[in-house]
Amino acid sequence: MGRLIVVSNRVAPTQEGRPAAGGLAVGVLDALKETGGVWFGWSGETVAEPSAPVIEQQGSVTYATVSLTRRDYDQYYKGFSNTTLWPTFHYRNDLARYERQEYGGYLRVNVSLARQLQPLIEPDDIIWVHDYHLIPFARCLRDLGVKNPIGFFLHIPLPVPEVLRSVPPHEELIKFMCHYDVVGFQTGADRQAFLDYIERGGHGTVSDDGMVHAWDRFLKVGAYPIGIYPDAIARASAQFSDRKAVRSLREAMRGRKLIMSVDRLDYSKGLAERFQAFERMLQNGPGWHGRVSLLQIAPPTRSDVQTYQTIRRNLEGEAGRINGRFAQLDWTPIQYLNRKYERNLLMALFREAQVGYVAPLRDGMNLVAKEYVASQNPEDPGVLVLSQFAGAAEQLPGALVVNPYDLNQTAEALERALSMPHAERVSRYNDMMASLRENNLSVWRDTFLADLRSVATAASVTAKARTAAPAGAASAPSPATSASAPEPAPRAARAQ
Ligand code: GDG
User: Which of 185, 226, 262 most suits a substitution to test ligand 1, by most atoms within 8 Å of the C-beta?
Assistant: First the structure.
């Protein structure tokens, strides 16, 4: 069996112990460590002139990283990926901006990355591409003659067609997705959004077995909810619960209850609404004053994107306002920490919290919800309060599910969680752990890759059986020549 090549925008830091605050990094690294293989992507560095990939072997994983120029970074990463696609795919088209030049840069970088990966590919390899930065990537590889099976997994939501259509090159993006052999989404709702775009737009057909036929391409489209390793997390949280930082927190709480949240600092995570629902609980229930605190850990990300600077200022303002309103000499209602923590320590902190508070306005899955549950003490577990707009809500039947826009409902759920009887907490925890074990991270990876292998095998049998010349993929524009890509890729060619 050939190697697995994982391609993602960022390759996670390779040194053990360095915190990686991002769901993709956490999920992919754990999934790849078990099977071994190659992880190809951006190193996180910007340089004046790109050079050949830097190859580094660590255990069973080969890391192949490349750098971006400042212009690539501005157009592809900061621009089209994070100022057009990210907000729109999270239903925040009010925050989205589209610039044709940036889309040109997005296409150019996809072409360039494909050219840098191509020499590393061996005939038996299978290629698994991750996330919204790399939607055109399969098409770029196919243009270079790569015949290997290529799958794509979208970690974030896919919005319904009406919203997707606000991204000007929406049709081209969906056509690019059709160049993969398998396209995977986090939830059935995301998958349905894709199928609706294809079918209602008259672009193709969907068969009962989930195969899509569109623009002369056949592909499988499925929902593959990403998981975690719940038992490994349970062990880590128990082992680390004696750490100094955890003991200090326990002592500082002095018998008060703890509600805990951990999120990258991002507007999709609904942090302001979350603080306000907690405020509503304190406002409606004076009995809670001095008896419960909210600990919000929010490591900053994408801090050079303007919107992220604004959200940081807003949240500091909200936390200050609420603390100013309710704090007592010996009690601060909200502890808001803008920093990263070591992963195992975070899991141990989750174990201290009576409530895990995960209330994004939109989220592909949300691994924090799953990690919170897995970190609990089975004898005395806490309760998860979870947004209905997180993909995880489809999978965690024991959570108290809330609409994060409804501050009263969320405040009531927090109170209910804080007061829940022991037997109910244990029963909800057991239901959720069963689901987490059944759909763990290996299941996610293995189901996706099994589908990719079987679709690719079926396609190659069909291709061999055909005597006529293949129809080819000429109906979709090439990223290097697309009319929307005003700048082809001369510099990328030099990077070889
Ligand atoms: C995307 C999708 C989807 C957070 N702070 C620290 C830290 N983290 C870790 C968490 C968790 C991960 O980062 C965050 O994952 P999420 O899933 O919650 O969210 P995104 O980063 O937005 O991830 C998301 C995910 O991809 C996977 O497909 O679930 O919907 O948006 O693992 O624990 N880790 C460390 N220190 C921190 O301070 N070490």
Answer: 262
Atom index in ligand 1 nearest the CA of residue 27 equals 27
Q: Is 363 in the pocket of ligand 1 (CB under 6 A)?
A: yes
Contact (CB, 8 A) for 278 and 294? yes
Q: How far apart are CA 296 and CA 276, in angstroms?
A: 13
Measured in Å, residue 23 CA sits from the centre of ligand 1 at 3
Judged by average pLDDT, the poorest of 128-142, 179-193, 250-264, 304-318 is 304-318
State which CATH number among 3.40.50.2000, 3.30.310.50, 3.40.50.300, 1.10.1240.10 fits the domain covering 4-226+442-463+476-495.
3.40.50.2000
Q: In the chain, count H helices and then E strands.
A: 18, 16
Two domains, one topology: 4-226+442-463+476-495 and 230-438: yes
User: What local confidence, expressed as pLDDT, does residue 463 receive?
Assistant: 65
**Does the beta carbon of 343 sit less than 6 angstroms from any atom of ligand 1?**
yes
Looking at residue 169, its amino acid is P
Handedness of CA 313, 315, 318, 321 (dihedral sign): negative
Q: Is the pTM of this model over 0.85?
A: yes
Residue 299: CB within 6 Å of ligand 1? yes
* 107-150 pLDDT, tens digit each: 999 999 999 999 999 999 999 999 999 999 999 999 999 999 99
CB 340 less than 6 A from any atom of ligand 1: yes
156 lines ligand 1 (CB under 6 A): yes
Q: From start to end of 110-154, where are the E strands? A: 126-130, 150-153
Q: What is the end-to-end Cα distance of the chain in Å, rounded?
A: 28
Give the number of the atom of ligand 1 that is nearest the alpha carbon of residue 340: 38
What pLDDT digit, counting tens, does each position of 413-429 carry?
A: 999 999 999 999 999 99
Task: Give the homologous superfamily in CATH for domain 230-438.
Answer: Glycogen Phosphorylase B; (3.40.50.2000)
Residue 56 forms beta bridges with which residues?
Answer: 63
Active site members: 155, 363
Burial class of residue 377 (count of CB atoms within 10 Å of its CB; 0-12, 13-18, 19+) = middle
Measuring from atom 23 of ligand 1, which residue has the nearest CA? 23
Phi, psi of 363 (to 5 degrees): -155, 135
| Ligand 1 close to Cβ of residue 134 (< 6 A) | no
For ligand 1, whether the C-beta of 368 sits within 6 Å is yes
- For residue 484, the model assigns a pLDDT of 45
d(CA 337, CA 297): 5
CB 77 within 8 A of CB 134: no
Distance 6 CA to ligand 1 centre (A): 18
**Domain range list for the chain:** 4-226+442-463+476-495, 230-438
What's the CA-to-centroid distance between 313 and ligand 1, angstroms? Answer: 22
